[in-house]
Each structure stands twice: as structure tokens, then as C-alpha cells.
Amino acid sequence: MSTTYLPTLKQLQYLVALRDAGHFGRAAEASFVTQSTLSAGIRELETLIGVTLVERTRRVVRFTPLGEAIVDKARTVIREAEELADMARAAGRPLSGEMRMSVIPTIAPFLLPRILPRLREDYPDLKLFLREEPSQAACEALHHGRSDCVLLALPFACGDVEVAPLFDDPLYLAVPQGDAHPGAGPMVADDIDAARLLLLEDGHCLKDHALRACPHPELRGRATMLGTSLHTIVQMVDNGLGHTMLPEMAVEAGILDHTQVVARKIDAPKASREIALVWRRASPRERDFRLLAGVLSTAR
């Protein structure tokens, strides 16, 4: 009877790391091994299955078509192997062990400082590793197994996921103090000057939520898209360069402290975003994620 030799998880992890990094040195660093160890592991995998997966040149790492297909399959195998360990962990104490959570930049600095101390106190055995990244990258990390769950703002198409809504986060228009009308109530969409609106660039879902709140055709064409953070845009508003939209959680967290910027709530049917925790369907840690969602929902 012949013996079938199967790839090891470590070999598959090295292959995926190389595909993600595109460079042997960076892949080895991400895998916490030497470059020679990672390279040898991938060569052993190629020898085992009898095909070339990676074309190596001095400057370029290029995956063959079969190599790309095997990387996709390897991601699934690795994720399912990790879920085997998750099943055992889920049978023990709730919210314990390691958990990797991606959080979008327009949530992380405003919500996490309020909720992390409680998580540490109530669930000391939970080791929560955080990744701050835009919504699309966070959802890709989730489906590729680099994250276990994502804290993000809806609406956003994150693929086939389970969703635990946490709370609504209304939007405000932030304007220089000199542009604010004393005693004025909420803004209506028609009062927003598209030519003066400063928004985050593509890749940040808050930009789409802002455009959804004020669905005027000229808004998308005339608003200025900036590749920066909310904190930087607030400084630009404070210097009289325009207006911007801010989520309520940022305003409540003090993003306007020490500025001459005034925030006015926007009175429009879609002038809010829904904060939610999402995870892969059929995850064995669903109980943990729903418990985590319950804790996060109290951050309001």
C-alpha cells in the first residue's frame, strides 16, 4: 500500500504569507521565521506535490496560475484548522483565548477606549488582538482568516457574514464657529454646501455614509475627497478650509476639543450609520461573538 504525503499546515501558511507579502523577507518576518526557513518550506511543498507554485527571480515573486489556485484553497484549509481549535475553546470559558478583531479607523479611536477597560476587567482571559484598517480590507481579512470578526459601520457589503447590530451613530456637520448660526437647530441636507465639503477618500465607508445622507447629484462631484483621518480633517475645518461630516461617537469622544469647530446634527432620513459586529457564517465561536457584541453595544 502506497503512502500519501500531505502538505503540512506550516507549509500552507508559508505559501499564503508569501502571497500576501509578495516578498520572501517580509513573508518570513510576518511568519516569525527566517527567510531560509520559509523558502525551504515552500520548496518542500512544491517537491511534495510535484509542481512549481512560485516563479522566483532576483526582484520579483510571481505565482503561477496553479499557485494562485492553491493559495486560495490553502486559505480555506488554514481557516478551518483554526476553527477546530476555536471549537474546543468555545466549549470552555466564554470570551477566553485569542481573538483577532478588525476595526475601521472611524470607530477605533472613539469607541475602543471606552470599552476595552471593561473587557479586560470582565474577561481577563480574553486576548483581543486589534487590526485597524478600512472596511474593504477588514472584510477581506475576515474572509481570508486573518481576522475573526470585524467592528464596522453599515451599510457596507462585507460578503456572507453574520451581523450583530450594536447601535445607530448619527452624523453631524462640523463647521468653523464663524459659519455656525447662533441657536440654530439641526441642519437639513439642502443647507450643506457641497463645494465646501471635505470627506475621507475612497476606501473609508464614512464617505459613502455622508453621501448617502445628502443624496444630491452635485455632492459627489463637488465634495473634496482627502486621503487622511478625521482628526486631520477637523484641523482643516478649524482653519476655515471647509466643512465635514463627523459621526456622533467622534464628537462625544472629544474630537472637537481645543478647536473652534461647531457640530450640528443633520436632519435627514439616512443621516446616520449603524455600528455592527460581523463574523463568518457558521463560525464555531458565534456564542463568543454575540457575547462580545452585547458588551460593545453598551459603549453607547
Automatic annotation (TrEMBL):
GO terms for molecular function: DNA binding; DNA-binding transcription factor activity. SUPFAM superfamilies: Periplasmic binding protein-like II, Winged helix' DNA-binding domain. InterPro entries: LysR_HTH_N (IPR000847), LysR_subst-bd (IPR005119), WH-like_DNA-bd_sf (IPR036388), WH_DNA-bd_sf (IPR036390). Gene3D superfamilies: Periplasmic binding protein-like II (3.40.190.10), Winged helix-like DNA-binding domain superfamily/Winged helix DNA-binding domain (1.10.10.10). Keywords: DNA-binding, Transcription, Transcription regulation. The keyword Nucleus does not apply. Pfam families: HTH_1, LysR_substrate. GO terms for cellular component: protein-DNA complex. The keyword Transport does not apply. It comes from the Bacteria. Belongs to the LysR transcriptional regulatory family. This is Hydrogen peroxide-inducible genes activator. It comes from Sphingomonas desiccabilis. The lineage of its organism: Bacteria, Pseudomonadati, Pseudomonadota, Alphaproteobacteria, Sphingomonadales.
